[in-house]
Design goal:
The protein is an alpha+beta fold. It has a single domain (2-118), classed as 2-Layer Sandwich (STM4215-like), CATH 3.30.2000. Helix content is 24%, strand content 47%. The chain contains two helices and six strands. It has helices at residues 2-16, 63-76, and strands at 20-22, 32-43, 49-59, 80-84, 87-99, 107-118. The protein has a six-stranded mixed β-sheet, with helices on one face. The longest helix is centred in the N-terminal third of the chain and has 15 residues, at 2-16. The radius of gyration is 15 Å and the shape is elongated.
Length: 120
């Protein structure tokens, strides 16, 4: 189910026109987003399994570019449910934090999106 969840998330990024990739972005165009998935190894009483997508938005442009993408993610991933086959994937925006990169020209904003999925 993890692969389906990541595929669903990537498909939503494409719909939004956001350059993004799991763990490593191989493009050269800024801004872009990389993400990793952390699963909680707990099954809840409703049968769902929770996790979190840690997204990092990068740019060498203006910090406003990062804020613009964050706002897109915040709006789009607010209580979003996606059904794939017999599985349902729930995404919910959970906040953002600016982060230092050690490079004065490179800017980064971390965005967290909580997930939950239910399967057959």
């Amino acid at each position: 189910m993890e692969t389906e969840l990541l595929t669903a998330f990537q498909s939503e990024l494409v719909k939004l026109g956001i350059n993004g990739a799991f763990r490593l972005y191989k493009g050269t165009e800024y801004p872009y987003l990389t993400y990793e998935y952390f699963e909680n190894d707990v099954t809840h009483e409703d049968g769902g399994t929770a996790g979190e997508l840690l997204c990092e938005i990068w740019t060498r442009g203006e910090f406003a570019d990062l804020i613009s993408i964050k706002e897109q993610l915040k709006k789009h991933f607010k209580q979003l449910n996606i059904k794939v086959g017999n599985n349902v994937y729930h995404f919910d925006y959970a906040g953002a934090t600016p982060d230092e990169t050690g490079d004065a020209e490179l800017k980064k904003l971390q965005v967290n999106i909580t997930t939950k999925y239910w399967g057959a």
